[in-house]
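@channel sequence for tomorrow's demo:
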Amino acid sequence: AIAATASYSQVRMRVSPRGLRRFATGATALTVASVIGAWTLLSVRSRIGNAHELGIFDAAWGIGSAFTAILIGVSQSTLLPKWVTQQHRLVHALPLFGIAALMVAGLALLRTYLVPLFYSTEYNLASSLMRLTLAGDFLKLVSWTLSLPLIADRAWGRFLACELLAWGTFWYVPTVSPGTSSERAAIGYTACYLIHALACLAVRTWRWR
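structure tokens (generated this afternoon):
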């Protein structure tokens, strides 16, 4: 959270009491969002029925998340400084979305080989679950990119509102979804970032219409 705020502040913030307050506010908002997200993930994982089901979910979720984290870092380091100083244009993000789509397609094609490679043949059912989690991974990148204009504009209240709505979705959806406990967690994961993307898009549309 501190690194994300620092990337933002290097472009726009000056060293002054006001600048330090802005930095502290941004760092606090990003840290709160990260803590809530971590707590939600742990809560959802704790409701998965047994160790085998948990391993299936972790395998499906972990493989895609590792690759998505790289693209999120690229998104943050390339788009955020640009959007702090320029008009927010989502066309800037289209190449990154295209790369993410190709990555997800490649992981989907290779998922039956990736699970035993990175985990174990005991969790081969995770390759089926990856159809859900990979959709969530793509939406995660999209939704994070859509939240960058809120960070660039220091709209921390709206940023946190979108985060709370998303994490609340992740916590709630598995309690009402069908399927095994790992499938319910995967549905919640995908729904979380779908709602986050829609919320950030709605806030952006309302703010800049």
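heads up for whoever presents: DSSP finds seven helices and no strands in the chain.
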